[in-house]
Structures are given as C-alpha cells and as structure tokens.
Inverse folding.
C-alpha cells in the first residue's frame, strides 16, 4: 500500500508539471502565431504596394538609369521587406537598390522615398526638401492629400490616395489603373480612418480580452499549482504520519475509516487532475482548429497575392504594348509632319522659282523686243547696204573702168598705180558689203532638216578640190553624224573652218586637217545631249590674248598682204553654231596649230 501511494504521488506530480507546461506554451504560441501571421502578411503587402506604386508611375529620365533606387526614412524595418522583394522583382526591368536615410537632409539620388507617420517626420518640410529632384514620396498613415501617395492600414490590408497635382508637378506620369483604385475624396479618407480606428479599437479590445483570458488562465494555473502544492504537502505530511505510525507499530491502531478517507481524498485529487487534463486537451484541440483556420486564411491570402501579381504582370504587358503603340503613333505623326514640311518647302521653292521665272520671262520678253528692234535696224542697214551703198560703189567702179580704158595711157606711172589702188579698194568694199549682207541673212527663216555631214563634206571636198591640190592639203574625217539643221549654213561652217586651216599656215608647211565628232552630255544644260565636232590643223596657231577676238566681225590678226580675206569668216561660224543652239571655242598653241570645237544639239523628230 505504501508503494502504491508513492507511485500515485509521482504520477500526479509529473502529470501536473506536463499539463502546466503544455498549456502555457500552447496559449503563448497560439496568440503569437496569430499576431505574427497577420503582421507578416501586412509587411509583405506593404512591400508589394510600394513596388506597384513605382511600376505604375512614369519617370521622365528612367531610361537613362541603370538601377532603380528606393529610400526608407527612419529606423523602419520595412527596409528588410523591400530588400527581400528587390531580390525577386524588378522595376521597369531594372534591378532595385534599397537604402536607408536617418535624416531628411541626407536624402539624395533615389527614385522613391517611403516614410511612416509613426516616426513623426514633418511631411511639409520633407516635400520642400525633395522638390524638383524627381523623387516619388510614399507616406503611410498621414493625413489626406498631405503626401504624393498616402497609404492607410485597413484590417489586414491597405488603401491609398494620390495627390495628382503634386505628382504631375514633379514631372511624373500616373497610370490610369493607379487612379482607378485610389481613394478620391477626403470624406472617404476620413470614413476609412474612422473604420480603421474602429477596427483597431475592436482589435485592441479583442487582444485585451485574449490577454485577460490568458491572465485568468495563468492565474487559474497558478492557483491550481498552489492547490497541488498544498495537496502535496498534505500528502507528504500524511505520508510522514503513516511512516511514523508504521515505524512505531501504531499503524494497526488507526481506524479503517481514516485509511478509506485518505484513499478517497487521493482518488478525488486524481480525478480532478484527470478532468483538468481533459479540459486542457479540449482547449488544445480548439486552438489547433483555430490555427488551421488561420493557416487556411493565410493560404487564401497568398493565392490572392499571386492573382494580383498575375494581374499586375498582365497590366504591365498591356502598358508595354500601349507604350509601343504610342511610340509608333508618334513616329508616324513625326513622319507626316516631316513630309508635310518637305511638301510645303517645295511649294515655297516652286512659288519662288515661278516668280523668278516670271521675272526672267519678262526680262527675256524685253530683250526680245530689243532684239526685234535691232533686227529691224539690221534689216534696214542690210537694205541700205544692198541698194544705197552698192549703187554709188558700182558707179565708182564703172567710172574707174572707163577712165582706165579711155585715159589710162595719159597717166604716168603714179596715176596708173593710183587707179589700180582705187579699183582694188572698191572691189574689197564690195566684198565687205556682200559678206555683211550674207552675215545678216544667217539664221533667219531657215527650216532645219536632217543633214548627213559625211555627204556635206564630200560635196565640199569636190568644190575645194583645186585649193586642196594646189596647197597639197591632207584632210581626214572620222565619225561624222547626221544632225538636224540648215544644210547650207553647216556647209558654210565647215567651208570656213577648212579654208582657214589651209590659209593660215607657214608657206613651207603642207596643211594637215583632222575632222572628228563625238556624242557628249552638257550638265549645265540639264543633261542635254550634243554632237561635239573638232577641226584640228597644223597652222600658225592663235595667241592666247586673241582667242575671243577672232570671233568678232571684221577682226583681223594679220595684214592683207600676208593673208587675204574680209575677217568675217569666223564671225559667220559663231553665228551659225549659236543659231543651231550650240557653242564654238578653240584651243591653240602658237606656231603649232589650232583645234576648233563646236556643238550641235541632238534633236529628235
């Protein structure tokens, strides 16, 4: 019996100790787990909100930055959550760096700044310090419209409001989705504050009730512990009494009722302990169920967070697509503006050219009137030269002939020589008048036809056969084309150039003449095609200072005794070439020969 009693006492003491430890640990863990779980969810949501704000606000110079920087003001442990989030997410496809500032004056080189109202930073002073630095300010639990973006605690989540004027003043662009879910009025903000304060008060009351319950439970446990201690002391005392009675041989004298009483007392104490353990088991079971429910709620919140991240990713994709579309539209508008500017500039240039063309046409018209007047004067002069000048010249020539025939023998040698000089002078004057008349008729009223220059040269060679043989001239011809022009004038052109090549040479040198032609394009004439003729000789050459003078009418470089002629041949050539729309020029080396070039336009029927 003594051994049974001791075993019961040991079991009772052990059960008491285990139950008290389990109950205390469970209640502490249950309350801490609930509070800790809710706080962890809110911390995660706070970091997600801050990252979402950064992603839905456009920075003016974000493309130039390699790292997106977030600043945390004060000794706030939110920096830990933001840094953890920065390892998983990027903002505008840039890595995120999170830094801490202890004072407002230290703030610099960040894109976003987070500050909590519980650290008592003055929002107005903070806004003045970061003004113009392109820093987005995100506050928590501040008054309505006091920050750029302001968050407020609502149960296990957050709500926010945005100050669009301050954000846009700093050069940021707000995404439509950010505006859509923001609190838009101060009344809603106050109502939200009141609801938050009410929820906070209820939560505090619940925590207070839980704490009170916990204190009561602790007190009950302490009281129970005291009762158990008292029972243990009583049992120990009874044990000592029993041992004393047993030792002294007085155990047989105790009444059986006392033994039964002791056993009943022990049994009742054991039953109370067993009942207390059963109650504690039931409470532990209920607490486990509550913990399981909290876990399910936490899993549901995690699922919602994942859904929100998917929605945010979809929104980011849509924003990128919209950004590409906007860039394309801007490019198209810029292209249209550029094309419009080019067309408008072309229109202005065309208008200016049209005005210049009108002015030039007017000048040409005035020049044509002047030329028409000069042509009339030239026609009148040609008429006078052909009639009024030739008539007295013919009379002089006739009388000189009569005097020479009838009275020639009466004159001495000086008189006869004088009559010869007068006769030669009258003949030269007649030739000059005839050449002038011929020059005035060139290019007037001529109808152009296809002219085979090879055939023209062959006919001209027959006409000049005696001169060519007499001077032992050698003429070579290469690649003469068929051109459109006046056959008579082109014949005269070649005749003058060949005759000059034969005439103007040294007496002991046989003339060598080379005639060729190539097709060329003149850029100054708008890429117009020309036939370029070349007549090369081995004559006496022309000095550089006389190259332009020789094309003037009646210009001679030598005396009549040495080289005969009127001095109008090259003037004829120039007028013929220019009347056909071409140019004439020469290259020459004095004493070695000259090459005359002229061009005739390539005209299609």
């Amino acid at each position: 019996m003594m051994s049974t009693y001791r075993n019961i006492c040991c079991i009772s003491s052990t059960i008491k100790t285990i139950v008290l430890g389990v109950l205390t640990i469970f209640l502490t863990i249950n309350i801490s787990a609930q509070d800790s779980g809710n706080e962890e969810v809110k911390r995660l949501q706070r970091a997600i909100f801050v990252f979402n704000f950064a992603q839905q606000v456009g920075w003016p110079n974000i493309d130039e930055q390699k790292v997106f920087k977030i600043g945390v003001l004060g000794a706030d442990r939110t920096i830990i959550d933001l840094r953890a989030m920065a390892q998983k997410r990027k903002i505008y496809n840039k890595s995120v760096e999170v830094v801490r500032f202890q004072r407002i004056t230290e703030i610099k080189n960040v894109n976003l700044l987070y500050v909590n109202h519980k650290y008592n930073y003055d929002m107005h002073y903070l806004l003045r310090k970061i003004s113009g630095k392109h820093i987005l300010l995100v506050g928590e639990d501040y008054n309505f419209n006091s920050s750029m973006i302001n968050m407020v605690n609502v149960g296990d989540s957050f709500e926010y409001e945005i100050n669009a004027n301050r954000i846009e003043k700093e050069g940021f662009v707000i995404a439509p989705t950010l505006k859509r879910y923001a609190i838009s009025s101060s009344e809603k903000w106050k109502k939200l504050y009141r609801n938050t304060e009410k929820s906070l008060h209820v939560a505090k009351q619940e925590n207070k009730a839980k704490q009170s319950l916990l204190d009561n439970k602790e007190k009950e446990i302490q009281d129970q512990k005291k009762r158990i201690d008292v029972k243990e002391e009583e049992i120990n005392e009874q044990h000592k009494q029993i041992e004393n009675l047993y030792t002294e041989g007085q155990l047989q004298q105790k009444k059986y009722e006392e033994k039964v009483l002791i056993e009943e007392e022990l049994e009742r104490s054991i039953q109370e302990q067993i009942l207390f353990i059963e109650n504690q088991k039931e409470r532990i079971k209920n607490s486990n169920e509550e913990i399981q429910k909290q876990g399910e709620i936490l899993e549901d919140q995690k699922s919602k967070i994942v859904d929100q991240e998917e929605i945010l990713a979809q929104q980011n994709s849509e924003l990128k697509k919209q950004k590409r579309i906007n860039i394309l539209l801007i490019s198209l508008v810029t292209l249209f503006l550029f094309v419009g500017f080019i067309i408008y500039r072309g229109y202005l240039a065309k208008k200016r050219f049209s005005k210049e063309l009108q002015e030039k046409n007017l000048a040409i018209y005035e020049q044509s009137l002047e030329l028409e007047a000069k042509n009339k004067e030239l026609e009148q002069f040609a008429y006078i030269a052909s009639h009024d000048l030739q008539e007295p010249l013919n009379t002089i020539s006739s009388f000189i002939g009569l005097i020479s025939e009838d009275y020639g023998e009466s004159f001495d040698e000086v008189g006869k020589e004088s009559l010869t000089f007068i006769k030669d002078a009258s003949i030269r004057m007649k030739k000059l008048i005839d050449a002038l008349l011929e020059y005035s008729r060139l290019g007037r009223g001529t109808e152009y036809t296809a002219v085979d220059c090879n055939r023209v040269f062959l006919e001209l060679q027959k006409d000049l056969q005696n001169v060519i043989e007499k001077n032992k001239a050698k003429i070579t011809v290469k690649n003469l084309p068929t051109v459109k022009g006046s056959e008579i004038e082109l014949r005269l052109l070649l005749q003058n150039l060949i005759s000059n090549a034969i005439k103007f040479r040294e007496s002991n040198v046989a003339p060598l003449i080379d005639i060729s032609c190539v097709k060329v394009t003149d850029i100054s004439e708008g890429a117009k095609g020309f036939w370029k003729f070349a007549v090369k000789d081995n004559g006496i050459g022309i000095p550089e200072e006389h190259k332009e003078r020789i094309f003037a009418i009646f210009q001679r470089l030598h005396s009549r005794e040495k080289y005969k002629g009127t001095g109008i041949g090259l003037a004829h050539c120039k007028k013929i070439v220019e009347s056909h729309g071409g140019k004439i020029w020469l290259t020459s080396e004095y004493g070695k020969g000259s090459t005359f070039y002229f061009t005739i336009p390539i005209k299609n029927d």
